[in-house]
Amino acid sequence: MHLYSFFNSSTSYRVRIALAIKGIEADYHGVDLRTGAHREQRFKAQNPAGGVPMLIDEQGNALGQSLAIIDYLEALHPDPPLLPAEPLLRARVLELANLIACDMHPLNNLRVRNYLANELALSEEQQQNWIKHWTAEGLAAAETLLQRHGTGDYCFGNAPTLADCCLVPQVANAIRTNCSLEPYPRIVAVYQHCQQQPAFQRAAPKQQPDYR
Q: 110-164 pLDDT, tens per residue?
């Protein structure tokens, strides 16, 4: 397999965690979002959305969108599972994963931040206020879900799930953008536990070939 990724992309980070947990090897190809490499025609020919991550499997099939990629990996390599078999717990994992992937991440990704800066001409302070506002909204909701339904060292139990694959990169983004994590003790506890696990360590931005 081939993974097209950017070291600081939280969506790519999700897929890297899933690959590491499942022990799947993939050749790494760095795509520098800062220079617009993801918008080049040869890249968009395979991934029309023009973003990362993109996975190309052994048969040459190209897939974009992190949750679709992880679902594909889950189907091909079901052990260890990232989605529980029990229906309600599975739904809880998907609830948190989609909160992050659908509600939080799109509002603060690089494409949106560039639009705020270049098209709307927002000041640095206004941009930071935007990031902090939507990060706090999302993390507050995630903290409530974990306080109500979370158990164990990970989001939901004592083994990592798709929820952890999504939560850890989003917390890393919050740290990188100087957002306070003080109101979210359960999130912080899960994040700190994951940081001690080899799979999460291998997937971290600083461990990627294109890190700089």
A: 889 989 999 999 999 999 999 999 999 999 999 999 999 999 999 999 999 999 9
Nearest Cα neighbor of 149 from 70, 109, 96, 84 is 96
Q: If we measure between CA atoms, which residue out of 192, 196, 148, 147 comes closest to residue 172? A: 192
Q: State mean pLDDT over 186-205.
A: 98
Residues comprising the chain, all counted: 212
What's the pTM? 0.96
CB of 150 closer than 8 Å to CB of 190: yes
